[in-house]
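Protein 1 of 2
SEQ + STRUCT:
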Amino acid sequence: MNDFLDIQSQAHKKVIDAIQHGFPVESRPFDRLAAEFQLDSSSIMDFLHQCFHQGIIRQIGPVFEPRKLGYVSTLIAASIPDDQLETVAGYVSSHPGVSHNYQRNHPLNLWFTLTVPTPQAIDDYIQHLKSRFHLDRVYSLPTIKMFKLKVRFNIADNPEDESESLEPDNPHLPPKVADSASEINISESQQELIRQLQNGLPIEPQPYLSIANKINQTESQVIDQIKLWLQHGVIRRMAARMKHQKMGYRVNAMVVFDLPDDQIEQAGRQLAAFPCVSHCYHRPSAPDWPFTLFAMTHTKDTLQLETTVRQMLENLHPRQHDILRSVCEFKKQPVRYFIEPVSQPSHRLLNFK
């Protein structure tokens, strides 16, 4: 593990574990954490500043649900010639709708997520890439069903929760409410709040007040809006995003399975029960790509990965499987929503160069 984290107290490590789950949405969130973990709020802020400096924390802020904001997302896999890989990866990473971009050890060697305003924009971008770089194999693999989204890396001496699949409700907030609407109307003032929030919260006693001052709103308006968005699923969670390699999880692999359709539901739930699986999705197959169940798996070493995959296979008995390890992380950061004027929605996030 990172030397800085090795020397921290268990109480400080528990703060890191907790804020990956949910960061308090109230006027003085660090006072709440201090009371919860019997620490001084200044000590917590100093510790978190060091975590940012060490590259352990990427950002503290919201994870938005794209559908609720009127966007669509997909995972794209592409086969890129080795001599073009860095050029294509750099070009893809420049797109503000690309949040994750990785090289993996497979003939389909570039994998990235794309979030844009319309399904047509996804098709247009794929055709654009194919044409610009003379590519043959570029596939969109959108989510059919999510079985797990729980990005949380345990560093305190606490047993990991092996039973939980989907993210639990934030303990600092009222429970989520049922909401069937797939998209909500976002006013211009709300868009401005989103633009500020996606830059992350500052580490200071009243971070929401700092955000409010930048957009001429009151602190209570900002807090109330965030809570409402959390309740209705516009924000999946307010939390810390970590650099997992700095947390000691140095092996990152996308483990994929080919299963009959009638076995995917049960298999997805079984994979979701593995604590080292952060994401588990059912996705469509593609030409020369028969795999439809994906499990993003993070372990501390190769032996742990091999043991985990062996246990998965014993449970699932797939027709075939593959392990795509991350070779290079080209980009990992939140999507930038509403970065262009509302008057130009059809061009938002296309950003062709």
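Protein 2 of 2
SEQ + STRUCT:
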Amino acid sequence: MNLKPSNNLVKNSLNAHTWLGLTVGAVMYLICLSGAVVVFFEEFERWEQPNVEEYSQYSHQQITAAINEFTQRVDKIPESIYVVLPTEAVPRIHISADGKEWFVSQDGKLSEPVKEGWTHMLKELHVQLHLPQTFGIIVVGSLGAMLCGLIISGLLAHPRIFKDAFTFRIGGSKRLEQADIHNRLSVWGTPFYFMIGLTGAFIGLVGVLIAVVAPAHFNGDRNAVVDSVYGGDPIIERKAESINYQKAFDELTKINPDAMPIYLVAQHLNTEKQFLEIAATLPNRLIYSEMYRFHSDGSFINYQGLSDGPVGRQVAYSVYRLHFGHFDNGWVKILYAILGLALTVISATGINIWLARRKFESFINHVWSGFIWGTPLSLAMSYIIGIYGSHFVAVFWFCLAVCMGLSFWIRNISKTKFFLQASTSVALLICLLTYYLNFGS
């Protein structure tokens, strides 16, 4: 049995790979670079607001006081109030609902508001490319699906890709050099890239899937689709009373001593439907958390079945951690960042190969050079300027446009590359200086 792909299949796969890569290459570069950096979003969020009180221990009195003050500050009590508990990665508490969010001090008082700073801009760049939310998420999810297509077509288009896994031709032909970098990095990280593409596609396109499935099988009820996958809320009809948070935590410890609470949700506060949810991570599990439900008096109702329910439910609730590398182990984050940068290089070299194959230069070459080396500079500049005016998104895109325009004006790729790389180095040093001037040591 001959498993070698036919010449016709190889040719068609190469054409498909080329055009698909050209279509998504620039956008993929932005998504991959921002994704490699956003792995450290928890560290960046702490870095941006370093004066927030940090601690690891908390009490039910603290939670009660924070929720009471929160309900007094808002005009209407939200349906769901979230209290994110301290973890090793982020040893601080914050409370949020309906777009309002504050940090919580150890005495239960609300302190400074949680700011949507540079890290928020970085998240939005990765998740939705700063486009309108729903549309942007769908676009990025579609690119995740295209990445899977690129991986498959790339493997089929290069039958010797694994055999040549350690072949490097550096310093000779520009096209061969870029092709070797592109192909070698592609081979070494294929399983990771495919996982990232698949999980990214799910995160981005799950809303589309729900919109399609709801009218076909659930009489248009989208919430019913979500409940069928993740499990629905319990039906509660009891007299409203103060929530006994301590009793609920004690009950959780009895039910599952290994469960580590990461956040809680006060649902339908001060109504007959009131109940408490506690999300907790479980050791050696990929699921983001299990959801445990409790009556107001702290007695156990049930759990959502995210850890031992249908296989599809477990898989669906594991996607987030897999895609973002959201693990407590810092080395896993570093590995995700390295592989994310490798995928960034793959995205760039894919376009470089096509440009080198043309054997002539045009405005595309110069604009592309400005785009590639201007993106890191624009990320740094968005922090430096944005920290004084909060216009992080506008600064990023303005700086990127200036970098591409400057590259087109200089019309010398080597000079452009050196200038933008040097400027990025200086900008990163200014980032540290700016930070010191604002927050001290």
